[in-house]
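Slide 14.
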Amino acid sequence: MKSLRSLMAVTAMSLMLFAGCNDVVDHPINPDLAEVVPTSCTIPPLRKWLNDEFLSWSEVPTLIAASPELSMSDLANFHTLYFENSPENQYYGVNGEYTDQINQSFKDVKSFWDIEAENIMTVAAHGSMLQDRNKVVKMYTKIYGYSNEKANKYADSLATLFKIYPQFLKGEHPAFTFNQIAVPDTTFPNIGQIPAKIVIGDGLLQGLDEIGYAKIAPQAILAHEFGHHIQYDLGILKRGVKLTPKTSRRFELMADAYAAYFLAHNKGAAMQLNDLQQVAEVLFNTGDCNFTVDGHHGTPTQRKAATEWGYNLARNADKKDHIISSREFASLFDAGLNDLVKK
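Slide 15: predicted structure.
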């Protein structure tokens, strides 16, 4: 079904590559990256769960949700990205059920790594935003460039669609916030400066909860996104970077490894092996089989392998309390990357 493929594409988990405030010269040298070669790849349970949700809607609501004009699966995520600029009164999950896990993990990961992190905030994307007419109109006019007349017409359409199609859950279906985004301090035309932030969508956490990872998923997702902020700080992600399948895969697998090292380390989250194996399964579920797409995130198997590499680096260290620098970590990871992607 073409509409289903389109909706799956727009709800794919994202790494947003924006310009940082500073050009960093002294950063790990880009390695000679292996090309992305299609291999045997199975859609992971998380994506299958979301796919089944779409199939249960029937064709017409799926076509509507996939409409690039309405952009229903992007509005809440990008409203949070562009306009939610305060960490105050944030809650994670439709009912705040993941808030404590996110807040504690964020506090711990900021103090663990050797980057300046006090300016980074976490913010949540809630599907309830789609019920807020003013926010919807603001998105359509400021971000999509629609006229006031068109923006108001589409805002009215959303309100009507939520009455016609109860499967949309008034915007709170996980499909509409199925995303995670890391962005540094960035200035956008017509918007101004936004602070460094991590956006975590309710829908992504709900989906991982549905397949059995409620205990571990919030910490794993938060630590992964913080890994991208380390990359921004080191200059691994730089202004104007051109994504290709192999460069995007490197960014994602490295962020998995950063996350796993922190979660395993005695001075980090100090998770036990059974929990770390669950972390590997969470990040396995965020892999994809889109080998030719510039934003390819690595296959599920590669995501799991990078996670295991990261937590084994911490678990097998001779000095269990020593934390290697973020820069040294990146160099070690790059040295082993071409072996990891053979998985």
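Speaker note: DSSP finds 13 helices and five strands in the chain.
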